[in-house]
Design brief:
Layout: E1 2-7, E2 11-26, E3 31-36, E4 47-53, H1 55-65, E5 70-73, E6 75-77, H2 80-91, E7 95-96, E8 99-101, E9 107-114, E10 119-124, E11 143-148, H3 153-168, E12 172-175, H4 179-182, H5 186-193, E13 198-202, H6 203-210, H7 218-226, E14 232-236, E15 242-245, E16 249-253, H8 266-279, H9 284-298, H10 311-318, E17 325-328
Helix pairs in contact: 1-8, 8-9, 9-10
């Protein structure tokens, strides 16, 4: 039996370091930051790095480094990039229980940086969206928890069936949907949401999912997520930190004040560390401090996996995490 199975994408992330311009547009009703390049120009890159990423493998590696028996379930291509993904999973002691598409191309993304450490990601989702329930070895779906990151198309249909199968086997479920999934609304995600025990989203995603304004009072937004059915919900807000609610209390932890080198993978690190600490029987304040410490470590590196800590080192780092503030719900 595994402690946790991560279901999601596997990607080759290409980091293009260009120190591009960051343009901020603010209107009466909204604000937006844009990474900009001059049209018709040839842009000199300072360096180009190829690193494995994807929500499924990022979280699986995080779980493994926390000392958990972790597996990755997803579809990768039968290509050189797929070999790179498999090599990294083996290196980090993650069991691969997914499928390999003979004619599929492993996911590929180009990550464009900005001078403030934020990024824009150009993603080609190929193999990951072709995960097929009928090709999965169901005997391998034997775990205490299953963690779902973002999946689309046929892969989301497979995820729904995995969740239903897990529910019958009393396997708990954590779900971290993406922005484009949240835009579809609760009805579209019902197949996963109705089985979810831990739901994690950022404020914008939570507002999109519930149909509420992202400026609404936090307590009301948390309640709307709890009303969906999970026993624990988390809303993250980047530098502002994160809030967790179990229906009785709201727990808040501030975000990192350090200037990030690059922010890709910070959310995956936070969410999977929180769940990993839960699996290791830590209480919510401890889970938040550990999650904050691992997320803060990841943003010091280029690459979603590079700053992930092993358990003992993370416990030491978490002592310096911000204090958790607790209020009644």
């Amino acid at each position: 039996m595994f402690d946790v199975i991560s279901v999601g994408s596997a990607t080759i992330d290409v980091y293009a370091n260009t120190h591009s311009e960051l343009v901020k547009i603010k209107t009466e009703h909204s604000s937006e930051s844009l990474i900009c390049y001059p049209s018709g120009s040839k842009i000199l890159m300072h360096n180009l790095n190829f690193i494995t990423g994807g929500g499924g493998t990022n979280t699986a590696v995080c779980f493994s480094r926390l000392g958990l028996n972790a597996a990755y379930l997803g579809n990768i291509g039968d290509d050189e990039n797929g070999d790179l993904v498999m090599h990294r999973l083996i290196k980090d002691k993650v069991k691969f229980i997914g499928t390999i598409g003979k004619r599929d191309q492993t996911n590929f993304s180009m990550i464009l940086d900005s001078i403030e450490g934020d990024r824009t990601i150009l993603v080609c989702k190929s193999a990951s969206k072709k995960l097929d329930w009928n090709k999965i070895n169901k005997t391998k779906i034997n775990s205490r928890w299953i963690y779902f990151s973002s999946l689309t198309d046929d892969a989301f249909k497979a995820a729904e069936k995995i969740a239903a199968y897990a529910n019958k086997k009393s396997i708990k479920i954590a779900f971290n949907p993406s922005n484009y999934q949240a835009k579809q609304g609760m009805k579209a995600l019902e197949g996963l949401l109705k089985h979810t025990d831990l739901l994690v989203m950022n404020r914008e995603e939570a507002a999109l999912l519930t149909g509420l304004s992202k400026t609404i009072e936090l307590k009301k937004l948390l309640k709307a997520l709890l009303d969906i059915g999970p026993s624990i919900v988390i809303i993250t807000e980047g530098k502002k930190g994160a809030d967790c609610c179990d229906g009785k209390h709201i727990y808040h932890i501030d975000g990192s004040k350090k200037k990030p080198v690059e922010t890709t993978g910070a959310g995956d690190a936070f969410t999977s560390t929180f769940l990993g600490a839960m699996i290791k029987k830590k209480d919510i304040p401890a889970c938040l401090k550990l999650a904050a410490a691992n997320s803060a470590s990841v943003i010091n590196y280029s690459g979603a996996k590079e700053g992930l800590n092993h358990w003992d080192k993370l416990v030491r780092k978490a002592k310096a995490s911000p204090a958790v503030k607790t209020t009644k719900f």
